[in-house]
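STRUCTURE REQUEST FORM
Protein name: Ras-related Rab7
Source organism: Chlorella sorokiniana
Requested output: structure tokens
Priority: standard
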Amino acid sequence: MASRKRTLLKVIILGDSGVGKTSLMNQYVNKKFSSQYKATIGADFLTKEVQVDDRLVTMQIWDTAGQERFQSLGVAFYRGADCCVLVYDVNSSKSFDNLENWRDEFLIQASPSDPDNFPFVVLGNKVDVEGGRTRQVSEKKAKQWCSAKGGIPHFDTSAKEDLNVDDAFATIARNALKNETEEELYIPETVDVNAAAAPRRQHLPADLYGSLQTGCGIAFMLALGFSALPILTGDARERNERRYLSPDADEGAENIRWSVMGVLSVLPFINPMAWVFAALDDEEASTLYWSFAFLYALPYLGNGFELDGFAIVSLLVCILHVQVERLAQTEPVEIELPSALRTLLSSIPRAVRSLGRYGSSLGGEVAERTRSAEEARRRRPDRKFLEERSREARAELEDFDRRRRERQAEQRRLAQQQEQREKERER
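Status: completed
Returned output:
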């Protein structure tokens, strides 16, 4: 069971093309910088695990294309964001002026529940260019704009020199955590999108599986105690002595039942069927036996039908449980206990009712965590969908370039015709 909670934070980086969004992301995640410019097509993302105070945080940082023709893809990437980073080039006043448009567009596309308090962070990048001599947007002007928008944090950064990059993203993580509702998530360590699709066993998230182990351990002990109760209180001795004195015709069939249950209980994956067999054979106690069958099936359902340590422990408990139940139902045995302890055991029914209330509460918690994990899974963009959109964006870019070349060729042709006509008039 995990000792710390892992939180997934989705961070979107927005800004004009060429302001250094990709370089900032690569500098923070990979500690690398490339001076060669390459426009982002559609969107891309990187992840990084960081420790914020006492919490383990996985930052999923989305780098988006700055070209206007890709802005229609925004709704696919913005939804579910926990923080938005607005980046401008301090050497380009136009990129700073466009921050207003980027902020408004994000709020429209992402539709956060509380747009007035949604966390933004502004980064003024490329402060290293020409030693700051070409700077067009002063830090004072940028901070005034941020203050007017509700006190947005501002950092002067340089992806090339790694200036303030870590400090900026630490602030981004803290602000995103304030906006994040805590959820239990299952985050795979690696994802191979090129691997052939193969059937996989489903596992519960680590924290939820740990809760299941704890709950089942308590339930195992209570079930054993409940089956042993007739032995501890003396009811088994009195009832089964009468059976030995007055045997009936069903005794042979009952012996067969316990023999079959004993065999089934030692078989991995099959041992819950021992209690199913008992429920079908004994209508009077069928509800109790069905409950035991479900209890011993839970470890296999929780781990994807694998024989792990938890499943082996439940198998051993099941073997013991069947034998305890057999002794209580067929043998005139009794464990001598002090009278005070016998009185204490008489309160077991009240404890069982309390356990029922605890089980209802545990079931509600399991359902809530499962629903939260499912909602978090739906928030993560589908990789196949992103690949399709990226292919469409590349095709759109190629078509745009083709039309541009055709327009340039047409303009040259018209210019040549015009030049020829002017020469003819001069003659």
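Reviewer notes: Strands lie at 6-14, 43-52, 55-64, 83-89, 120-125, 154-156. The chain has three domains: 6-182, 206-377, 389-427.
Form closed.
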